[in-house]
Design brief:
This protein has 497 residues and is an alpha/beta fold. It has helices spanning 28-39, 47-55, 63-78, 100-116, 120-131, 146-169, 173-186, 191-203, 207-225, 231-241, 276-286, 305-315, 334-344, 356-366, 382-386, 406-412, 424-435, 440-450, 454-487; strands at residues 6-9, 15-18, 21-22, 45-46, 83-86, 89-92, 294-298, 324-328, 373-377, 396-401, 415-418. The protein has 4 domains: 6-98, Orthogonal Bundle (Arc Repressor Mutant, subunit A), CATH 1.10.10.10; 103-138 and 145-248, Alpha Horseshoe (Serine Threonine Protein Phosphatase 5, Tetratricopeptide repeat), CATH 1.25.40.10; 276-418, P-loop containing nucleotide triphosphate hydrolases (Rossmann fold, 3-Layer(aba) Sandwich), CATH 3.40.50.300; 424-485.
Length: 497
């Protein structure tokens, strides 16, 4: 069993959770270094940057050694392998879902996609879930991270403003007014918030309050920085003064084509028997938080690699809500396959780049924040597969190949499942499902000659059923001919003239 997964929380006081319990992290310097590494997960942080974060401009001569000591203590606390030494500094390996800041940014990015698809209600739910991750002001006592704090706080405010704007457009102006009043007091110079508050007040029938909000905003801006409100806020003020009817209607959403999630998997091969161990191995390899991105099912022709891959993919549709892509790579050009994948992911044909490298970059950008399964069937070699690997940390690739694809395992860390012929009991079960009741001797010969290859079993079973069908038809034809011959005889039983 692997080591317990760590959960890191930085949207508030820094906390590290293991198995539901908070780890003790009392040393301030260690917290600062850990915070830097978490905000830059999977990226190298130089020792100089860590020193700047801990001591600012007054680092002691022993700063390098003290950073090394702090990292050593963090390794003992977090476990081996979490923090790696990588010139010119250190790198923290962590799953994005285990860091609340990365989870927040991923959810905000996904909400933008939903807005683009016209799914405002779903976007609001996702934004509210993302905002609920915040437990306070991050790194409040860490001077060396003040710019990071400003960046994170700006992301929070933008997400909240977007969420409130969507809720106003959904007709919830009454509910959001108290939250907008508090947000306007918290950020008095953010004119977008003031505009949202004015619009919500106006739609709630509180026109006088909306006009007063504008006057207070104008007075505050003039007193503090000597500027009039911006053109958008002035335009809204004029619309409220004129009681423009358009203010009472949510903006009409631009008509967009209905988004279709790609589900390109071929039909399952039925009936399907056995392979429970292999299916469990694929679950363990591809469904865990720290799972490798790619798995290879290798085996000789006819042993059922495609049937297994398609079976597993159909059974795990819920794990990949953003779609499933499929390509048979037999004689296929990866560039043409990329075209098909990009169109399936919503890229118009006219926007497809001509340059193969640009096309691959666009494909990886389209899959960066999605949970997509890519099934690559009958791969020739590792190069053919690498040209089609997606870019998202939550994407998974399932490859079938006759070759073991050792280079893909070595370079991409792919998990490999070697598929062997069906055991005898499973072969008997498959034949029974295919042909029903059949002479035992014929079934025994069929199982023996197939050597456990499902394809051979299916072909032989089909021939057996075809032979039985012809035999039954010939017997019926023979029976049907008897009355006709008898009808041609005379009443005394003599042949008719």
């Amino acid at each position: 069993m692997g080591a317990p997964a760590l959960e890191f929380r930085v949207l508030g006081p820094v906390k590290v959770i293991r198995d539901g319990a908070e780890l003790s992290m009392s040393a301030n310097r260690e917290l600062v270094i850990l915070a830097c590494l978490l905000l830059n997960a999977d990226r190298v942080m130089s020792v100089e940057r860590l020193i700047e974060a801990v001591w600012g401009g007054s680092a002691p001569s022993s700063a390098w050694r003290q950073v090394a000591i702090c990292v050593s203590r963090l390794r003992r606390t977090l476990g081996a392998g979490t923090i790696e030494t990588s010139s010119p500094g250190y790198l923290l390996r962590a799953v994005p879902d285990r860091i609340d800041w990365l989870r927040f940014t991923a959810m905000v990015d996904r909400s933008r996609e939903l807005v683009g698809l016209g799914a405002a209600e779903a976007a609001v739910r996702l934004l509210r879930e993302a905002l609920a991750l915040w437990r306070g002001r991050p790194f409040e006592d860490i001077r060396g991270l003040r710019y990071d704090v400003a960046r994170m706080e700006e992301s929070r405010l933008e997400a909240l403003e977007t969420c409130l704007e969507l809720e106003i457009e959904l007709g919830r102006h009454h509910q959001v007014i108290p939250e907008l009043v508090a947000l306007a007091a918290e950020s008095p110079f953010r004119e977008r918030v003031r505009a949202q508050l004015m619009l919500a007040q106006y739609r709630a029938g509180r026109r006088a309050e909306a006009l007063r909000t504008y006057q207070e905003t104008r007075r505050h801006l003039l007193e503090q920085i000597g500027l009039e409100p911006g053109p958008a806020l002035r335009r809204l003020h004029e619309q409220i003064l004129r009681d423009e009817v358009a203010l009472m209607r949510p903006r009409a959403a631009a008509s967009r084509p209905v988004a279709v999630l790609p589900c390109q998997l071929p039909p399952q091969v039925l009936p399907f028997v056995g392979r429970q161990e292999e299916l469990a191995a694929l679950d363990a390899a591809l469904l865990g938080d720290a799972a490798p991105a790619t798995a290879v099912i290798s085996g000789r022709g006819g042993v059922g690699t495609t049937a297994l891959a398609v079976r597993w993919a159909h059974a795990r549709l819920d794990a990949f809500p953003d779609g499933q892509l499929y390509a048979d790579l037999t004689g296929a050009d990866p560039d043409a396959v990329l075209d098909r994948f990009l169109r399936a992911l919503g890229v118009p044909a006219r926007d497809l780049p001509g340059d193969p490298d640009e096309k691959l970059a666009l494909y990886r950008s389209c899959t960066a924040r999605r949970r997509v399964l890519v099934v690559l069937d009958n791969a020739r070699d590792g190069d053919q597969v690498r040209a089609l690997l997606p870019g998202g940390a939550h994407c998974r690739v399932l490859v079938t190949a006759g070759d073991p694809l050792d280079d893909l395992v070595a370079r991409q860390g792919a998990h490999r499942v070697f598929l062997r012929p069906l055991p005898e009991d499973a072969a008997w079960e498959l034949v029974g499902l295919l042909v029903g009741a059949a002479p035992v001797q014929e079934v025994r010969e069929l199982v023996a000659t197939s050597c456990g290859d499902p394809l051979s079993l299916r072909l032989a079973a089909a021939r057996l059923r075809s032979h039985d069908s012809r035999g039954s038809r010939d017997a019926r034809d023979a029976r049907d001919m008897v009355p006709a011959q008898e009808g041609r005889q005379g009443k005394a039983g003599q042949p008719a003239a």
